Amino acid sequence: MKKSRGIAVILVILLALAGIAYYASIIISSTGKGENKNIKLGLDLAGGVSITYQVESENPTSEQMKDTIYKLQKRVESYSTEANVYQVGDDRITVEIPGVTDANAILEELGKPGSLEFQDPDGNVYMTGDQVANAQATTQTNQTTGAKEYVVQLTLTDDGAEIFGEITTAHIGEICPIVYNDEVISAPTVQSAITDGNAVISGMSTFEQAEELASNIRIGSLALELSELQSQIVGAQLGSEAISSALKAAAIGLVLIAVFMIAYYWIAGVSAVIGLAAYSTLVVAILYLFDITLTLPGIAGIILGIGMAVDANVIIFARIREEIAAGKTVGNAIHDGFQKAMSAILDGNVTTFIAACVLAWRGSGTVKGFAYTLMISILLSMFTALVVTRLFMNALYAVGLKSPKLYGAQKEHKTLKFISKRYLFFGISLAVIIAGFVFMGVNKANGNGALNLSLEFVGGTSTTVDMGREYTLNEIDNEIIPYIEEITGDSDVSAQKVEGSTEIVFKTRTLELEEREELNEMFETQFGVDTSTASSTNISSTISSEMARDAIWAVVIASVLMLIYIWFRFKDIHFATSAIIALVHDVLVILTSYAVVRLSVGTTFIAVMLTIIGYSINDTIVIFDRIRENLKLKRDVNRETLQEVGDRSITQTISRSLNTSITTFVMVLLLYIFGVSSIKDFSLPLMVGIVSGTYSSICIATELWFVFKTSVGKKKVQ
Fold it and tell me: Which of 41, 535, 101 is nearest to 293 (CA)?
């Protein structure tokens, strides 16, 4: 690259970055209304709409309620991936949709849940709405006229497909009406036998008509008939204070990371800072452009992305320093450093991306939201490290910054003997994990539950109180909630402000009658509240058994696919097995921290686990990549060679592991220092996970690989 071109590249990158940063600042500081709307925030950050439905049927069964809640959950995720649906009392269901403010519009679009029947030409019901898996409005081209048609695409359950096939076979050329709440909403004529469970309803004159029919069919497929009981706009659970504190923590963290990178890597560090700035601003822009709802678990995905963006740069810079130390010119070192770092960056990011894709596919609610932000973060971190940083570094070299002293040379360190201490490391890990199970057993024996499950898992009591005046989030946290915690005996208390009123909804564990009376008395004596206006009701968990099942299956499938990918890339099942066991290790260590400290286990628990799984596998892959490279340099491989290669690979990458962990840890620590209580509950176990993930990559994964390689399988090395 010529000097003039280098100057041009630097100017273009800086101007583009300034433009994106300006655009991002407008998004963050905008009012959130009209054309100036900002990033869509979840209910926990910015509030939204809460709608409560009354079940029309008398004495609905538990299965009917669960089925209806699960189907509603899947349906409202079209408004936001962070929507929550949960049971209130015995026969009510509440839907909370973040990022929206018009309850009437939502109700109109969602439709009124009711009974849906499919009838034969004689009016006999042959199929009901619960046998419809999905209904979507779409367009197709008429094969005869070539004209565009507006249709509804029906997908039936296996049971529904069998029945539908029999009816359509018997009534070709006849009308089989679809009836919703005793009203015919469509009267399609059977054109042919449909036996594969996929049908098309045609005859709509506009796409809006097709959407309305599809909506009625979807909502009518619920197991129970529902009617709207009440709707309200709720204030944020975390609020503007939480957002401003998170932004403050992010700003300070990025500045500290920038200072560290420049001080440690010099000119290369300057390039990394430009890449990291590009990553941060592009994340904001992408969230806005694709209308993605951001919540606390989503912030976890972005934090992981920052860690991976820093990590990619650190891997590259370490390689460049090694090439300079080997006697190459700076220009060749930059080229070769990027080339040699590519496999580690690619494998680490692909394995994490696989996990994110599976979580987006199988997960629901907060898990899906986390997955989307994580996928965006991975792609942007790779782009900024491999494109933006590389362009900027080459441009700096082109304008005259060519001295090796400006980039540094990797010093040869004495190989550290990690593998010989493997049984000590295994023993420490087992002791920590066993301690976790012991604490869980003691907690359960004392009647406190093995883990401190939050309302999101076990449900509780919702108490609505008119406080007589508006309270800020800090006032609620510091002046009201401590009194409630004294009554409930735990810290799992959340609050929502009802917009446009002075009402606050407090959610606690399930309260007995005496505790409810004590709570009312506290509000009256401490805050002068008229308790005759207060109301309490029991609520179900927002994390249903189906959602928990989806999350578990997502993690299992992701782990299997990551194992297959690592096996394929490294051509050795021992690498894959060791990496997955190291992930299980990290999950169990975090579980120990939750059991010992009695942190609340809720949606943030899922976010923490998923974040550390992504973080840890990426760290492990970097070390394994170096082992693979070093093994290629050996002609003869025996037990001593494997141990030497393992120790040398860890030593060569340990500074990179520690540097990445330190920068990520600083970001999370600042969130803990500046964050409100809910963010602290999220940050503390995340810090534990970062330490555990680093420890397992250095002290567990490679040591397991050595044990498996020398002791397990037909091709074990003696």
Answer: 41
